[in-house]
Queue: 2 jobs
Job 1
Amino acid sequence: MNDPFDVATVVIFSALALMALMGIAVLLLIVVHQRRIRHQTDVVGMRLQHAKAMHQVEREVEGQTLAEVGIELHDNVGQLLTSLHLEVQTLLESDEPPANAQGMERTLDRAISELRRLSKSLSTDHLRKRPLVDLLAEECQRLHRPGKREVVLMANMKDATVTPDQHVVFFRIFQEAMNNALKHARASRITVTLVRNGALRMAIQDNGIGYDIGTLKGGGQGLTNIRRRATLIGATCTLLSEPGTGTTVIVSQ
Amino acid sequence: MVLATIVEIAGTIMTRRGHNNVMLYNLYWLVEFVLLVYIARSIIAKPPVWSAIAIPAFLLLWASEFVLVWGRYQLVIYSVMVGAFLLVGIYLALLWELVNTWVGPLHRSTTFWLCLAVLLYFGGAAPVLGSVNYFIGTDARLAQQLFWVVRGLCVLKFLLMAVMFSRMTAPTQPTTSP
């Protein structure tokens, strides 16, 4: 192969072969890249699915636990109170009823009706049977004390648009926020707003003592519960508060 | 690209004035190699281990060959071939790293176009440049014709680099660690 033309042919073919080799290498790397991206997408999808399943299980376990507590309260403590009520009634029907027997009966009546209400509110099935607006309205009415404490509900939505998960979680968050407002914030006015404007949005605003969000370590058990419950259904939870200006809890999904 | 243009202009002026411009290209080859290695090393997170030995070895080879061809007006063909394959290796390693870290389509990455330019140019040009001295000695006309292959590859290289520069203004995606 002494002819320069033959050598030139070999050189050109070598150049073309090397370029083709480079091209193939680049193509293979593109394929590897696409596979990696697909794999990553699959992994993210699986993780999301797993997280969803875990949240679903967590919701179910929580619902079942609360329902069982409700049943236990109704069947055991409820029965005991009913027996006690019967004994008080027997006392009242006796020839010489004790002076405070009537007061005892009234207190027992209240205790039994509170226990029934609590037992019902712990049952998820019971909650789902009734529209969310009705549940909130009933609770607001129960907690409203004319002249002492004002609890107002403002709602402009049709309950048919609420999913079963939203139904339960929004109600539990409402209960927790009300508990915080009454127990810790010592609020005298609580305004609950429920609107469906694309997203379902609930705001619980009180005029209590408020707190400094920055210094509240861990957010307190109640607030942690609110956030955790919101996370369970992928809702966003915003807490607005400053000392002396009350607190607003906003949940949106 | 600016440097390449300056070298090309200088090379043309030298030829027209009857001077041999091979030594200019010998020097430019070293500058181009160092620049491309510097760019690759500034992008790559984990440079290939072999490059730590291969790059100094190449520099030594280039210096020896440069001294050897001094006065003979020949291209440092061994340095050109070894350097070309070194660059191909380094840019393949860079592309491999990009493939494993880049999120989104590869064509949106500036590094991808730089790698493509280097791989295709140096992959194709190495055999031609490596045989230049032989052809100049045997058939100068054929050598001139073969240079058109290198010119064509140069155009391809700068076109790919132009695409790379155009990608610099396009929105880029961040890379993530696996």
Job 2
Amino acid sequence: MSATSVATDGRIEWDRPARGRVGMFGLIAAEAGIFTIFVVAYLFYVGKSLTGPMPKDVLSVPVFFTICLLSSSLTIHLAAKALRRGTVRSFGILWFATISLGAAFLYGTAREWHRLIFDEGLTISTNLFGTTYYSLVGLHGFHVVVGLLALFVAMVFTFLGGVRAEHAERIDVLSLYWHFVDTVWIVVFTVVYVIGR
Amino acid sequence: MRNRSPNVWLARCTLLLGILCLSTVTLAQATPSLSPTNIFAPASTPAQSIFGLSLFVLAVTGAIFLVVFTLLLYSVVKFRKKRNDDGREPPQVYGSNQVELAWTVIPVLIVVALFMATARVIASVQKIARPDNAIEVIAIGHQFWWEYRYPALGVVTANELHVPVSDNHTPIPTFITLLSADTDHSFWVPRLAGKTDLIPNHPNSMWIDPHETGVYLGQCAQYCGTQHAKMLLRIYVQSWDEFERWAQQQSQPSNVAGGISAGQRIFETTACINCHTVSGTIAHGHFGPDLTHLMSRDTIAAGAATNTPEHLRQWIRNPDAIKPGSLMPAMQLSDQELDALTAYMETLR
Amino acid sequence: MSTESITWPRTAGESRSFVDHLHEWVVTVDHKRLGVLYVLYALVFLLIAGIEAIVIRIQLIRPHNDFVSPQVFNRMFTMHGTTMIFFVIMPVLFGFVNYLIPLMIGARDMAFPRLNAFSFWMTAFGGLLLYFSLIGANGLYGAGNAPDVGWFAYAPLTSRTFSVGHSTDFWTLSLLVSGFGSIGTAINIVATVLCMRCPGMTLAKMPLFAWLNLVMAGLVILCVSPLTAAQIMLLVDRYLGGHFFDTQAGGSAVIWMHFFWVFGHPEVYVLVLPAFAFASEIIPVFSRKPIFGYPVMVGATVAIGFISMSVWAHHMFTVGMSSAANNFFVISTMAIAVPTGIKIFNWLATMWGGKIEFKTPMLFCIAFLFQFLIAGLTGIMQGAAPFDWHLGNSYFVVAHFHYVIVGGILFCLFGAFYYWFPKMTGKMYSETLGKLHFWLFIVGFHLTFDFMHIPGLLGMPRRIYTYEPGRGWDTWNFIVTIGAFFQAAGILVFLGNLLWSYFRGKAAGSDPWDAWTLEWSTNSPPPAYNFASIPIVKSRRPLWDLKHPDDPDWKYE
């Protein structure tokens, strides 16, 4: 963790972790708690639906959009590195790429849901599978939306020329959240499309 | 000696008084006459096993209490700031590894002992195999009454459970499967067994083998809505002969001679048959209790009132007067209709 | 140390109106002001929830009483429990923690002051939302009325079928909203303790108060989130036709219990750890000795934090789990008694060989030790699962948890009020009124909660609006109710003391107790910036080092 040093008249070297990072890890821990419960509910109810479409009948694995989302972790990582180096232009391009990849993922989810609801007749109230699927994937999607909003705000500031190398730490903290969202997707993907099917 | 100040004597007397009170209360509880639902007056094997465990646990926790309380009392008395204090700070002691070790190891050993005693009783109550001669009952919890079905005997009744007595020579336990028609309930008759919950979509099972005849009381022990408080339990433990006779009688349909009375006509044309069953008639409702042998019960409305003609009439007229929030509606019947209906109910023996 | 003031730039002679004062308090991000807001908010709800308790006790004073209808009674116990836990105890503890942690670790404020304010207002709004449920016509049953599903709101009683109207939704939403506030505060506490300690204050040198609340905050982060998840699921069931807890669609009522108690059990440790923190600061000062076994106390606290997340299903022994599951939860429940017992012994050892002064804070802490011991032992009794098949869901449980929360936590809290009142207000409280409060309250407490165990042992279940005569419960319930009035009297004396002393108390000075942690080194009340210069510490008791330069702690730690 990066630290803030306080030079108190030179007598004591005093290193403590940075507040932003600790705070973000705290937030991530809390969110992980929420997701864990939804994942537990999903796994508990696998195979227990009394009626209606079953996962293997209607789910199609979203490989392309998963690649989009996971690549956005790479682009955001590169963006943060670029900003730390001071190359704000590269940072801006990579940041924009991250947002686009995230938006693509959301589009993919929306398309999938449209198909499931209107073609397959699976809604949140259809059966246990429907309830747990839409809740879990929806909760994740909601976190993607929030993340994209935050990234978008940073994008606007970048366009206005307000983002410079000294803001690298804050961008790092924000990208922690984005990495968390991607990690959650890995878990959700495994639970829904691999185990649950 | 200056150390034996009045405070110490006062403290010791209070302690003695406390112990005396505690013992009196504890001893007084041993008798079932103190309460018909006393958990320390077991009358069936599961309750007996729990009772044995509880004595062990109470002894251990009681001993721990005495030791720690004495230490606390002693330190509060001995180490209080004296009047003639010299104003200096006492020796600053930061800790002691040996002492910490001691009061870690001893509690761990106590925990192990308690756990082993507990595991034994869990096994003896939960892992019991059902013998062939056991009476089988299915209990279904409703808001706010109990439904009982004896599949092997063809009996369906409500609120008052009858079981045969089970002694050491001829053990006849009763195994009860617990289901729920709506929300969570809990079956608790303290003198016979610990409580077990009735949860929808989650069948549970319990067993009792009452050693003495009599009526055992209890009530629902999981909050289930407005009238959770008046979902009472009555278990009638009878000799084998009496139980057989009861079961025989309960399995008969109602056989009211002499055609359909005015009361029965009201019963069958008002909404009663939507909820209640009277076997041998067209009434086959399942939402409310089976009324075929209503007059064989001592109480109505799951124990909310005794089964007298006045209470019955009151109940039919306006259930909320006896059990506000009960799910039986008042049907706005006239006095004449009420009289006829009550008379009909009185024939359902 | 830091008692020199810095001139605050303000135009001389400018008087501020009441509205200006109010505005300052509403927009504040100062941890001390937010702390006071939390505490005042909690005191208001303490009165409201206390009245709810009095109503419950009057209804139960004799069998077949008709003081209130069953519908009102069921709302009373639901609101009493929910209010006390979420809008009295949690806020008042967060208030003290917010106020004291920065002062104790030599910081100027919490790590995230604006998040601090946001968290307070979320909690405050949540409480108002819960009580907003009372407003509404008495029309459709349950519509526009207080929730009546019990504070743990078991499914399927909370489904649309059995809870018509919106009362359950108010319960769900108010806890969801205040849960976000709690998580915000917890993140703040963790970041503050880890990142804002003054130079020289390593984790091994910070007050136990900071350690205990660090673990508490970690527990909040990990355990309030399951409740948030469960609340969202309940809303999905109630509004989107979901089936999480819909037993008709194959759903499980038991899974709500698991999710709730995964929150619910660590929650009680969230409540008790700050109380332990108070005791760990007060007992040493009034025994004139350092806390015995600091490293072991830290270890025991961390152990309690971990183990507390593995015991939850001891609230579900009667649900019909397998014997393997029952055994697991028996052993984890009994295991947690070990570190908890270690703490009790360490507090005792702190008093041992000391020079105990029986001022009001210490009286409350000694009573806490006695009562928490008993509460822990009745907990062990219930941890023996078959014994719990009787004790669970009976008045024995109600007696046990009130013994912990009132006899343990509230007593420590009273101690904390009296101990830190001089620091927060600059005035000394009345020792006479404090002792009167203590004796009134302890008599009432024991009358109520000692005797409450007995109906439980005689078969009385909880949450019943009335009971049958002839079960042997009558006398005990009567005594229990009488005790409630003594406690009410004690609380009134307490509030009177706070008010009177605030306006008429003697000046307290910065260190009335001759204590040793950093908050006593600054003015009473502390200035907005806390310390004129950030302190540098060398031991766990920096003020002891200053007062005893020949015999400082850092030589012996």
